């Protein structure tokens, strides 16, 4: 559906979701108990991965959330075996930008400013952390908007595919503010997987809504 | 000196969020950057903050950084030297 600006030129092949209700990949919960404490949940999710990545502990909450959601999303899907690094893009969005970390950093300024916090006072750093981890070098953008604009996101990502700027793209919503957190990522590729949905605003909104309804079932097969 | 080195290891782990590193994993003379702990430039800034917070020491000349932060032992020697002044 979408806005009709573009033909459907790409497919949502996988999803991941992290919220207080737990951690999900394609609608299936990981063996990690849900927690309203984002620190507890992200640590449990990280340990569930079973592959050490010490940099994780240095990230701010927004980067940990996006990084972990990307790890879950890409489990068993090594994109760079199929695509050039420069053709894997990222397009993320949230409501609060990096404000959660900005405020933490501001607290340290009163004493001795923390360099480690300062480097996370930009929302698009989460994209950098995902790119460093996976070696992606394609187009990327971070939107700050009141709510997840699935129509705008679908149009933007479709345009990237239409212009052949990307062959694969991770898009979605990664929000952290105080005790509220929510991540919903979507793996979009030019070829349809076995359980794919065409990328359009309707499908993106439908999948995203399943998270906001609290069941975590961001399954492109549902 | 040995106690100072032990304290520094614990403080480095806390300050740099090295949650998967134990004090015994850090050799007294092991390089902190590139090899060894593999610290980066942001970690270097955090080490400068650590010296200021825990020991009230400011590094006057940034060029001294690489020598001071070679290993935990060189940091301990620097602290001892500064305290003696």
TrEMBL record, chain A:
Native organism: Chitinophaga costaii
Top-level taxon: Bacteria
Protein name per Swiss-Prot or TrEMBL: Beta-ketoacyl synthase, N-terminal domain
From TrEMBL, chain B:
SUPFAM superfamilies for the chain: ACP-like
TM annotation in the entry: none
Gene3D superfamilies listed in its UniProt record: ACP-like
Alphabetized InterPro entries for the sequence: ACP-like_sf, PP-bd_ACP
Pfam families, sorted: PP-binding (PF00550)
Domain Carrier residues, every copy: 1-83
UniProt xrefs under NCBIfam families: PRK09184.1
UniProt-recorded name of the protein: Acyl carrier protein
